Amino acid sequence: MKAMVLEEQKKIEEEPLMLEDLEKPEPHGKKVRIRVKTCGVCRTDLHIAEGDLPAKKMPLVLGHQVVGHIDALGENAKRFSCGERVGGFWLAGTCKTCTFCKNGLENLCDNAEFTGYTVDGGYEEYMLADEDFLVPIPESFSDEHATPLLCAGIIGYRSLKLSGAKKRLGIFGFGSSAHIVIQLAKNMETYVFTRSEEHRELARKLGATWAGGTEDNIKEKMDGAIVFAPSGKVVKEALRFLEKGATVAINAVHMSPIPPIEYDLIYGERKITSVANVTRNDAEEFFELAEGIKTEIELFSLDELNRALMLLKESRINGSAVVRID
Asked: Whole-angstrom Cα distance, residue 39 to residue 17?
């Protein structure tokens, strides 16, 4: 089978992912085999490829926004049948027994597995997955348009919950996840802060109350905010727009250092929290709300993955990049 394989972490300019022929994997136990149709391109893939995140498995097939059909079952797999369309997301497995798992915080499990990081992901024709960590894909979504929902959608939903926003939401950075979150927050006023005029136009098209830059002065204060940009500087800037008692949720698996913060910016019980991974419950709740969400996508072939990641690094993807695997 064809797969794009990371043999060594390097800058994406050096095109570290190589198109290779691999053996088709065979499922055992509760694992199922998925014939992959599409896989989304995420900034986390870029962080892994370039070494911002330490290698956990090498060589590695990246990709954790996976849509496909089950074509083989392990001997103990009972949840799905062959032919069913499913989605694989970032969380690939947990111990299910630790304190975090037992208290509904499996996203913090110390022994968690992650798709496209600790186990091979979706930039390949066939992928193995634990049946307990898959979600059915609603028929209303095509393969391509369902794909961004499996990371950008689910993690965006968790970020929105953790932000606590009820009336006014600040969105800092406007990539794949943000363009889904703004649709989830349709009953709120949404204020989008991004440097790209193209991204500002997309935000307005999707219903943003306002779109501009962090250098702008606006009178409104947010009762919750999400930082999507992997820049610590932006976290500090976001605090300036927060109402008392409000929270900035940081949706980033890797981020540059946050500069020193003057106490006045957090006084008034303003809070900063990270968003660490997702739970299966997040995935299930999100797909109950996903009906009607529109995803803006740019399609790439499997052998164009290095280019797609380069465009993502340069913030030249408007919406979500999706690899089609035929």
From this structure: 15
Q: Quote the tokens at residue 86.
A: 């499913």
Q: What angle do CA 291, 145, 137 make, to 5 degrees?
A: 60
Q: Is the pLDDT of residue 296 over 90?
A: no
Q: How is the beta sheet containing 247-250 ordered, strand by strand?
A: 210-212, 189-193, 168-172, 224-227, 247-250, 271-274
Four-point Cα dihedral 214, 317, 151, 296, nearest 10: 100
Pair 137, 281 in one domain = yes
Q: Which domain, by its residues, includes 122?
A: 2-150+277-324
Residue 175 pLDDT level (bands cut at 50, 70, 90): confident
In angstroms, the CA 188 to CA 182 distance is 9
Chain center to CA of 275: 11
The pTM for the full model equals 0.91
- Please check whether residues 135 and 157 belong to one and the same domain: no
